[in-house]
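USER: Note each token:
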Amino acid sequence: MRHIARLISVRVATRSTVKYASLWMLTASLMCGTHSAGAFNIKCSLGAKCVESQGASIPSEQVLEMMEYCDDFTRGGVGRTMLRLSLHEILQSSAGNHLHPIYSAYYAFEQLRDSPLAFKRRPNVEDTDYNEIAKSCAHLSADFEKWVR
């Protein structure tokens, strides 16, 4: 564990400048699992415009993407239907059409699952609580609206 505390600089490029971050911060975030939970975001610590939501600091660009995925997932309750289907049934009902609402909801769910949105990720997709995701999406949207003002 002592090797984590060593201050080894790593070059991190941003759009306008090059800044330095300590390797121990990156390593610690990976070891604590915060990289997937979104509690620590290197972009936010390097000066990106970030939104505080659900215990995480999320870059505003990522928030906009997440809100789009939330819309695709919750529009008309299609996400509730998608959660009950197997992957085979999703592909069959959408005929592989990426623009089909069921397929869009499936893709959105996969993106939200890999995002810092606060909901329980269960091993079986069928056990996922649609209402929990919808509430988290509404919370994210409200936090973004507060941030904009």
About this structure: Helices lie at 23-32, 34-37, 42-45, 60-74, 78-83, 87-94, 101-113, 130-148. The longest strand covers residues 9-13. The mean pLDDT is 77.
